[in-house]
């Protein structure tokens, strides 16, 4: 009897609905910024990764338009075939210079940078040790590599050391994976301790600087700079799509590492080179990050001010520990988190609920931007006060 091999899709979606895990897209109209139009409603935007407010900056837009006029819309091929342009190299040199690494390699997204790099560095005879809260791209890169994977409890250096002591000698190579800023919590990895452990156990260390680039460190180079670890041997991944306001990802490290990845990272070799527009916009953003440190200063002023307001006016609202623009507070259930997200939205605040399976416990995630005005932050706290305060206490 003929059966429909696709019926399970509807059943699966019904399960997702029942768990309150169903997700759908929301349309933003117009330029991105501290306020946006979301389904015809003007809202203050606390949902964006555009930490420095560069995604709608006229200089990035102009750079992208010029690049399109000069080089066209598409790169037309993989970088090793017809897809490489001078612009790509310029961007890679600018990233390496910011990071103070020997070289860098630009991928079509941060996700692809993680997948390709991890899969190229380790294989069946190797071990990956991965923080339990790492981003999906690190976790899936680990699976793709075929290496044995051990997750260590979040930022737990003692447990990581125990795992290394017990397991390291059973494997050829070992790679430790960590976000630098944890994307759904906002806290930082203990980078100096991780580097020391990596040295002690002869492991490679890969740090994902997606949410730290442009945000942390004196020059905005990221968490590595923030912790004074510039120049130490490690593999830095990042994205051009958050504080840098464009699209694309990168790996920064030694020239040998980059040369190796150009020959072995499947998600770099077998995909079309980053578009000229995205490449040029990212390059323009890196220059702005270097030339306008006041943007980062303003971002940190906004973060500190918002934390202070929350402490003063919402003493029961316990933010998760954070040293970044990402501020989260947990709710008792997924239903409560969805309700809170809707209440905020109705009051003109866009700060979405983040639910399992993305995170273990449901929460509201607030993402601060340099371009938020004092009034935006004050309105957020007033709305939280009148809508959410009782739900979280
Ligand atoms: N790593 C982390 C920690 C991220 O948060 C993200 C994006 N959410 C990525 C990697 C992927 O970056 P991209 O959006 O450039 O693919």
The low-confidence parts are none
The pLDDT mean sits at 96
Termini separation? 57 Å
Portion in strands: 15-25%
Shape: globular
What does this structure look like?
Helix 2 (58-71) packs antiparallel against helix 11 (276-291), helix 3 (86-99) runs parallel beside helix 11 and helix 4 (110-121) packs parallel to helix 5 (136-145). This protein has helices spanning 7-18, 58-71, 86-99, 110-121, 136-145, 157-167, 191-200, 223-226, 255-264, 266-269, 276-291, 293-313, 334-346, 374-387, 389-392; strands at residues 28-29, 35-38, 41-45, 103-107, 127-131, 148-152, 174-179, 204-208, 235-239, 249-253, 326-330, 349-350, 353-354, 363-367. The model has no long low-confidence stretch (mean pLDDT 96). The longest helix has 21 residues, at 293-313. The protein is 43% helix and 16% strand. It has a 7-stranded mixed β-sheet with strand order 4-10-9-8-7-5-6, sandwiched between helices. Strands 1-2-3-12 form a 4-stranded mixed β-sheet. The chain has 393 residues and is of the alpha/beta class. It has 2 domains: 25-56 and 292-392, Aspartate Aminotransferase, domain 1; 58-291, 3-Layer(aba) Sandwich (Aspartate Aminotransferase, domain 2). The chain starts with 6 loop residues before the first helix and ends with a helix. The radius of gyration is 21 Å and the shape is globular. A hairpin with an 8-residue loop joins strand 13 (353-354) and strand 14. The chain contains 15 helices and 14 strands. 4'-deoxy-4'-aminopyridoxal-5'-phosphate binds at residues 109-111, 114, 135, 137, 179, 183, 208, 210-211, 239, 241, 249. 4'-deoxy-4'-aminopyridoxal-5'-phosphate is lined by residues 109-111, 114, 135, 137, 179, 183, 208, 210-211, 239, 241, 249.
